[in-house]
Amino acid sequence: MIDAVGKPQTILLLGGASDMGLAVVEEFLSRGPARVILAARDSEDLTSATERVKAAGASEVTPVKFDAVDFASHPAVFDEIWAQGDVDLAIVAFGILGDNEQQWQDQRQAVLAAQVNYTGPVSVGVLLAEKMKRQGHGQIVVFSSVAGEMVRRSNFVYGSAKAGVDGFYRMLGEALRGTGVKVLTVRPGQARTNMTKHLDDAPLTVYKEDVARAIGKAVDNRKTLIWVHPLFQPIMLILKHLPMFVIRKLPL
Ligand SMILES: NC(=O)c1ccc[n+]([C@@H]2O[C@H](COP(=O)([O-])OP(=O)(O)OC[C@H]3O[C@@H](n4cnc5c(N)ncnc54)[C@H](OP(=O)(O)O)[C@@H]3O)[C@@H](O)[C@H]2O)c1
Known about the structure:
By secondary structure, the protein is an alpha/beta fold. The protein has ten helices and nine strands. The strands form two sheets. A seven-stranded parallel sheet has the order 3-2-1-4-5-6-9, sandwiched between helices. Belongs to the short-chain dehydrogenases/reductases (SDR) family.
């Protein structure tokens, strides 16, 4: 259970090598040691992720093989994780960005992006809800994006999947009211992580540590939805109500 000072005993990171997900794990480990389960595809990244989490003070690190698009395997992966005990905090952090112009003109790439960024989160969301409801407590944190709040021409393949994730998890939180399970949907703008290292900074770009701190605070305050940069909420409110002929003239 997450205790009175906001310290979880067990943290599950789905997308176990995610740069931003690991920053969130580090944020919670700064409150004290915890057991950490890193669920990821087999990769060299997982070795460095394990080292990173150990260095941050994890009492134990358990790697679990997990592929976000191998949907049929997910129930068994979750049974394996829960066989070792309850999970207090689960972070859904896997995702791919890709090249929008290639994705929307290539069926294979578009389907992969939709599966990793939408169907995978739905699959694990249902299983997290089932397991946490049964244990009677738990905090789910999911990475949505401002790209999903308003889907834009420049990244609509990724953005449309994030729009789906955002809606699914916000209403999953509603469906779980009264069960002891909480859902926090996070809408970062661009953050400096492995995913964006090839991109120039966009306006209001933040560091992954800013995202992690905002998530720690939001969990403490039992929030269900946050933007990371404080200006994004009002900006998005305006942008998403502009007509398309105006939006077309903006560098979005
Ligand atoms: N960085 C940003 O600006 C930003 C902004 C808004 C939202 N987000 C979201 O935040 C989350 C974390 O992103 P990040 O910045 O930490 O990027 P990241 O470091 O690239 O992490 C993404 C992770 O997803 C994993 N992944 C991809 N496909 C997978 C699959 N089929 N099965 C399992 N894992 C898979 C990758 O693992 P592999 O090593 O195996 O590829 C990688 O570890 C993502 O959902 C992203 O969309 C990011």
